[in-house]
Amino acid sequence: MTEATTAGFGPRVLAFLIDGFLADVIALISGRRPGDAAYGLITYGAFLLIELVFVSLAGQTPGMRVAGLVVVRASDGGRPRLGWVVVRTLLLAAVVPALIPDPTGRPMHDRAAGTRMLTTR
Known about the structure:
α1 (9-29) packs across α2. The protein is mainly α. Helix content is 54%, strand content 8%. The longest helix has 21 residues, at 9-29. The mean pLDDT is 93. It is built from five helices and two strands; from the N terminus they run αααβααβ.
């Protein structure tokens, strides 16, 4: 494997779309349909739960895996601790921090949680 670099916008969007699709499937399985009052809320909650559980346990969501991405501690490249994954997920829930990168491409929610999303390919 070559040296990992900070993930770019394209792979991040791919991972988001895949994880969003999975969250939609969860909402559909719950019996809700687009247009139902709770459908959007269930989809949103499922997306955040996917993020929290998979990044905590594996360092990547299913979408990140397909896109060749992984979340690591910025300090040493290790797996982020649960508390920081919670911080990262809560900031991701606010949406805006994920859209504000620094000059190196690291979004605000990663900087605040002390994490980096890297390409693995």
